[in-house]
Design brief:
4 helices, 75% helix, flat
Length: 60
């Protein structure tokens, strides 16, 4: 909660709300790195819209 409030203070509530969509991206990446899981094409296709949509919403 503290990190969330610091993020809101630092970048504002609009840009901080984008962080709520990041857990799937981090979960896939961390699963690959630390657990050696393979990523299916379906998983990449599911993560792609989230990753692409965060780019325009985080630009000033």
């Amino acid at each position: 909660m503290t990190l969330w409030l610091l993020l809101i203070q630092r970048v504002g509530p609009g840009r901080a709300s984008v962080a709520q969509f990041m857990p799937p991206l981090f979960s896939v990446a961390l699963g690959m790195v630390f657990l050696g899981e393979s990523v299916s094409l379906l998983a990449l296709l599911a993560v792609l819209p989230v990753a692409v949509s965060t780019i325009p919403t985080t630009r000033p």
